[in-house]
Amino acid sequence: MAKIGKRTAAAREGIDRKKLYELGEALKMVKARASAKFDETVEVAFNLGVDPRHADQMVRGVVSLPNGTGKTVRVAVFAKDAKAEEARKAGADIVGAEDLMEEIQKGNINFDRCIATPDMMPLVGRLGKILGPRNLMPNPKVGTVTPDVAGAVKAAKGGAVEFRVEKAGILHAGVGKASFSDEALLENIKAFADAVTRAKPSGAKGTYIRRVAVTSTMGPGVHVDPQSVH
C-alpha cells in the first residue's frame, strides 16, 4: 500500500469517510483544507444510477453557474464572414474555418471550449476523432452548435459548464474556486445539481443520484448527503 504523505494525512484529519455531510458543512471542510499555493478549484462528483453504454441512459448538458467558475476559459469558434466577426466581438480567443481545422489536425488545441455555426459542421465533423475524446466536439444539445455564436461565446466565458457522464456512471465538474464564498459555492453546486436532475434520461431506473462528493484540486474528498444538494 502506498504511504500517505504528511500533508495528505493532515488534510484527512477530522473527516469521517463513512459519514454523509450536509453540503454547507462539507464545503467548509473542503475550503479549510485547500492549502496549496494556488487558488484550488472546488469540484463536485456525482455517482449516478445510469449505464451510459446505453443511449437512453446517457446524461449530458450544460449549465451556467450563477457565480461563474473562476476559470479563464479559452474559446475557439468555427465560423465565417459576419458570424466570425460576431464571435470575435463577443470575446472568442480563436476564430477560423479551414485554417482552424488544419491547426487542430496538427495538434494545436489551445482552447477549452469549441463552438461552431451549423454550416461549419461538415468541416468540424472531420475532427471527431481528435475533439471527441477531449470532450470538445461541438454539439447542439449543449448549445455549442448554434447560429448565435455571440451568445454561446459569452455563456462559455461567463461560467457555462458542460457535463457528460463517464463510463462508470461518474459525472464531475469544477464549480468554482476555494477563494469563493461559501454562499457562492453553494449556489453553484445547487445550480449544477438541478441541471443534472433535469438531464435525467428516460432509461434511468431506481435511485438516480446515488452518491455525491466535493473536493478541491489537492484536497481530500468529502461525502455529501445527496438530499442536501437540492
TrEMBL record:
Gene3D superfamilies: 3.30.190.20, 3.40.50.790. GO terms for cellular component: cytosolic large ribosomal subunit. Keywords: Repressor, Ribonucleoprotein, Ribosomal protein, RNA-binding, rRNA-binding, Translation regulation, tRNA-binding. One of its GO terms (molecular function) is rRNA binding. GO terms for biological process: regulation of translation; translation. InterPro entries: Ribosom_uL1_bac-type, Ribosomal_uL1, Ribosomal_uL1-like, Ribosomal_uL1/biogenesis, Ribosomal_uL1_3-a/b-sand, Ribosomal_uL1_CS. Pfam families: Ribosomal_L1 (PF00687). Binds directly to 23S rRNA. The L1 stalk is quite mobile in the ribosome, and is involved in E site tRNA release. Protein L1 is also a translational repressor protein, it controls the translation of the L11 operon by binding to its mRNA. HAMAP family: Ribosomal_uL1_B. Belongs to the universal ribosomal protein uL1 family. Part of the 50S ribosomal subunit. This is Large ribosomal subunit protein uL1. The lineage of its organism: Bacteria, Pseudomonadati, Pseudomonadota, Alphaproteobacteria, Hyphomicrobiales. The gene is rplA.
